Amino acid sequence: MRYVFQFGIVWDHLPQLLNGAWLTVRLSVAAFLIGFALAVVLAFFRTSGSRIVRLTITAYVDFIRNTPFLVQLFIIYFSLPAIGIRMEAVTAALVGMALNFSGYATEIVRSGIDAVPKSQIEAGYSLGFDRLQIFRHIVVFPALRTVYPALASQFILLMLGSSIVAAISAEELTAVTNSLQSTTFRSFEFYFVATGMYLAMAIGARLVLHAIYWAIFERGRPTAHGWAR
Amino acid sequence: MSRDFEWPELLFLVGALRWTILLSIVAFVGGSIGGLILAVARTSSYKVVRWIAQGYIGLIQGTPLLMQLFLAYYGLAVLTGLRLDPWPAVTLAFTLYAAAFLGEIWRGAIQAIPRQQWEAAAALPLAPAAQLRYVILPQAFRIAIPPTVGFLVQLIKGTSIASIIGFVELTRAGQLIVNVTFQPMIVYPAVAALYFVLCYPISLAALRLERRIDADLGLAQRR
Is the dihedral of CA A41, A42, A47, A49 positive or negative? Predict the structure, then answer.
């Protein structure tokens, strides 16, 4: 059987696809910011909280990392209403993405904290800093610098993984593509173009993340050739 | 008159778990073959071969798994002109996906082998393929084990999205049970628990292996 590809119809619906892609970007950035903030807090308490706090955080991280994102999403969107917690699909998607991201980011941030030399922390104590001050003034910045590449990769995974929230019909790029292909019967063409859009977003995100790294960590640092600008 | 979530329902979930496991194994085995070819291609001395492998890996790692699944599903339908059952599509998509990730992991392992080992292998009367087979790969294999085991967890969790195109594995079975019991508060946590039971020991094993190999390599000062 011969199949004739028709990409013209995809072009006609481009504005809807772009709208969906824009929601994908906003969801990913928001989930990153919330999840990352949560991860820094969790990583702090995981390294310096009481035993019970540490165990709770470890259990949370292990649960997130050893169950599928899709099932976590179903629990948030379909299970929680049974105990009175109801959310719109987009909110549930954001909460799910942020919590999922926090699980992975906690591990990453913690590994960065572990990599800060002990002598620097001792130096902090000898200056009379308390734990929070040491964390805030000595540990955080070098730790984040160490783990920035891992966090950046995790962000890309977050953005690509966000396509799964289409399963609870949050109207991001994948969900928009789903509904367009089901009304036009041009499934392959729509998914092909949407995949290309995700690829472009992933490449774009990489470039932006590189620029951010440079702006935060490289600019104004002494280098072998003098001062970086 | 809905059913409750009781033993038969739980057994249905456990039964569906075998499809999750089967799909994971097929994708892992298929992906290992593809991944080995990709890893060797990525470290090849021919530029074009390296580029093709790199392009493939970049394409798979730069697009959502769910989209790859849809493309495999509808792409196969276009090729054969009929609506397929999901199994060929999911095995194809997950195999291609696993190949890219394993290829990248193993490339890292191959490149972690010190240059001197390559030079030593070249100094022996070994053909390039034999250098790889007898000198480099056995060493790279050790380094590669922990991340490979770690990826297996990622793969198992990833198979849950096969439910979206209607393949009945654990997650889809959970949805089906919810449809008859109306008890998502029990069913989805139960599904999550089953995944956890499957994945957590593998995660622990990966961590153990990593620590052991780090210790062997003398990198474990800080742990």
Answer: positive
Q: Which CATH superfamily is domain A8-219 in?
A: MetI-like (1.10.3720.10)
Q: In the structure encoding, which two tokens stand for residue A204, read together? A: 């774009």
pLDDT at residue A223, rounded to an integer: 59
DSSP-derived secondary structure for B105-123 = HHHHHHHTS-HHHHHHHHH
Superfamily, domain B7-215:
MetI-like (1.10.3720.10)
- The mean of the pLDDT values for chain A is 91
Cβ distance B196 to A63 less than 8 Å, yes or no, reads yes
Cβ within 8 Å, pair A66-B199: yes
| Count of residues in chain B | 223
Whether residue B220 is predicted with pLDDT greater than 50 in this model: the reply is no
Rg from Cα positions in chain B: 21
- Residue A62: CB atoms within 10 Å: 17
pTM of the model: 0.90
Residue numbers of B between 76 and 95 with CB closer than 8 Å to A? 77-78, 80-81
List CB contacts (< 8 A) between A182 and chain B. Answer: none
Is a pLDDT exceeding 80 seen at residue B81? no
List chain B domain ranges.
7-215
Q: What is the ipTM of this complex?
A: 0.91
Contact A191 B184 (CB under 8 A): no
A149: amino acid identity, one letter: P
